[in-house]
Amino acid sequence: MIRGLYTAASGMLATQTQSDLIAENVANVKTPGYQEKDGSAVAFPTLLMERVAKEFGDVPTAVPIGEMGTGVYVNQYNIVDRPAELQPGSNSDLALTSPGFFTLQTPDGLRYTRKGVFKVTDQGELQTQEGYAVMGKNGPIRNLTSDFKVRPDGAVLVNNQVVDTLQIVNAPLINLQQVGDSLYASTGQPLQPAAQVKVQQGIIEGSNVDIPGQMTKMITVMRAYEANQKVIQTQDSTLEKAVNEVGKI
Question: How far apart are the C-alpha atoms of 23 and 233, rounded to whole Å?
Answer without folding.
Answer: 27
